Amino acid sequence: MSHEKNSPLTREINKRRTFGIISHPDAGKTTLTEKLLLFGGAIQQAGAVKSRKTDRHATSDWMAIEQERGISVTSSVMKFNYRDFDINLLDTPGHKDFSEDTYRVLTAVDSAMMIIDSAKGVETQTEKLMEVCRMRNTPIMTFINKLDRDGMEPLDILADIEEKLQIECTPLTWPIGMGKRFKGVYNLYKKELHLFSAEKETLAKEGIRIQDLSDPKLDELLGSQADDLRDDIELIEGAADPFELDLYLKGTQTPVFFGSAINNFGVQELLDAFVEMAPTPIGRKAMSREVSPYEEGFSGFVFKIQANMDPAHRDRIAFFRICSGKFTRGMKVKHHRIGKDITIANATIFMAQDRTHVEEAYPGDIIGIHNHGTIKIGDTFTTKEPLKFTGIPSFAPEHFKRVLLKNPLKTKQLQKGLMQLAEEGAVQVFRPLRGSDYILGAVGELQFEVTIARLKNEYNVDAAYEHVNIGVARWIGCDDKKCLDAFKENQMASLAMDAEEHLTYLTTSEWQLGFVMEQNPDIVFNKTREYA
Ligand code: G4P
């Protein structure tokens, strides 16, 4: 293993930061992304990201989805530079595009940024995404947005985060007023005051150093709000836990920043703290051992597959996260699941606005690999011993529908289409042990719409849906064969096989699930399942 302090590989790794944003729709993810890219010089003007989003939600017919996929793919990994750092921002699609991909992207990042709308506090989608972050103890930095509007009291927001998300909050900046009385933020660790001004497109101005809060300059600048700030700071210095890098890196404490993304206020401080504190590409667990990014041998895994990026070619792109070693164009790697050597000739790297061929890439980077159906989510490629990375799960779907085939002669095509779409992670497919129909499961409703349209377009199958009285799915585990057989016998009507032949329990509600779990203490009901 080579981990020389100054080797070129080490230097490349140490300047990389790979992260995703978690938030509820409308909290300001698009706006913040745009500002981050602006600082990184990756876009020239504000509005570039935003206008894409507006197009995206304009219509919801199939053409729009198709177009949207082209667009959302180029924006699904954004690489930009800031100071001496190489940053990869992975988009976690939100809103109605919410799907398993949203969750799975979080398995490929090293840290996350959480945006909270100051008027709303913690919202449902953030809670769900946080659950996924917790599976890997992902470090989280928090940005409380929209301070230019009246919202909840800052202390109440912190309490809300601590209670709903079970993570300790430690403010690193503190807001002075809000809404019309919003004066700016005080940076607690740099002891600097930043006065609010709406600078939509420029970099932030230098802060004003105020070492001692009793400095009369504070009164000059803030008037009657100076004393409010002094009281607040005294209160939080007594009550809030001090920032500890180690706790942040373990995912148990989140440093909190306040600002207004649309006004570009507080964003640069967030970004500065991010590059200084957020983890460099971290080691990854494989079945056999932990893989360090500093190992010379190349390795990585596929966390997302996207079909038909280019409508002219019906190929798919596999999004591959590099975990160790250096990637060079034309490199030969072993595709372990199928046991074959493959040459990665034309990988793509995703810049903020376009895609370019990649000559070299390093741990933390995401490359796109063209794929004609041989690559699956969870696949590992290496130049070393066979490895199987863990922690790339499938998530239990929350919505279900039964598929109805309009022309029974197309059963074979339907089966082929569904299996391929399931492999891609576009939708989950279940075959009940009793009966011959297909039940589809999805994390987000839009996945159903896309599946029907793609079955028609790509497999020439006309299908429709029927309501099915299922609301919960769990993958079944049990070491005791006798127990399992008895359970199967009893619950036959509620059991199905998924696309990878894993036994799955499908039922109406959490309540019913709880009841059956109580009756069957030897059976394990899993909410996530690792890819085979
Ligand atoms: P999302 O990607 O998380 O869904 O959120 P997005 O950035 O699209 O922001 C949602 C709305 O919140 C937008 O308004 C955006 O302008 C607004 N917003 C973002 N940051 C701030 C902020 O710091 N202060 C205030 N006051 N508003 C903010 P919209 O009306 O939905 O869109 P638009 O008409 O402004 O484009």
From TrEMBL:
Keyword line: Cytoplasm, GTP-binding, Nucleotide-binding, Protein biosynthesis
Keyword GTP-binding belongs to the record: yes
Short name of any one Pfam family annotated for the protein: GTP_EFTU
Binding residues for GTP: 23-30, 91-95, 145-148
Keyword Zinc: no
PANTHER family found in the cross-reference section: PEPTIDE CHAIN RELEASE FACTOR RF3
Family indicated by similarity: Belongs to the TRAFAC class translation factor GTPase superfamily. Classic translation factor GTPase family. PrfC subfamily.
Record-linked NCBIfam families: prfC, PRK00741.1, small_GTP
Function as written in the Swiss-Prot or TrEMBL entry: Increases the formation of ribosomal termination complexes and stimulates activities of RF-1 and RF-2. It binds guanine nucleotides and has strong preference for UGA stop codons. It may interact directly with the ribosome. The stimulation of RF-1 and RF-2 is significantly reduced by GTP and GDP, but not by GMP.
Protein name (record): Peptide chain release factor 3
